[in-house]
Amino acid sequence: MALAAAFVYEREAPRDLAAEVDHMRGRMERELAREAEGHIDIKLGHGGITDIEFIIQYLQIAYGARSPSIRRPDTLGALEALREAGHLAPEDASALDEAYRFLRLVENRLRIAHAQPLHTFPETPEGMEMLARRIGYRDDEEGSSRAKLLADYERQTQCVRAIYRKTLGEEHPK
Known about the structure:
By secondary structure, the protein is mainly α. The protein has one domain (about 15-170): Four Helix Bundle (Hemerythrin (Met), subunit A). The protein has helices spanning about 1-10, 15-35, 50-65, 75-85, 90-115, 125-135, 145-170. The radius of gyration is 17 Å and the shape is elongated.
């Protein structure tokens, strides 16, 4: 661990770190997530869990030499440490915390339902309805449980991607 910490934190972060991280993230999204209509990847897709992890790890590499308190392996603890150190705006840290908990809840309900690691939404309306109900959504006058789940997913992932773009910079498009 000491050797890894020395390698990561005791050198100045490369100037093109944001571009390199963004390039790597873009490749993962294109080659691994392969999202398309009806195929949504909670972990690797646009605004998913991996975006949150990349934001945190980028900030840890960029500021970890000066702020040892942010060198945390746990995602939620690292978010809080980044906020406390002033490297992440409180509203962004809060939004990422909420999104991370939501996305992990969805992923965990998928895992429980299929008794194996799974991080893509069901591709059938029936499967989506079952997942939405497992999470706690219900049909009512405001809409179907499936529609509510998808709306919340879209809201969360758009928010995550906006923070990702703000953190890693708009000048690094995919």
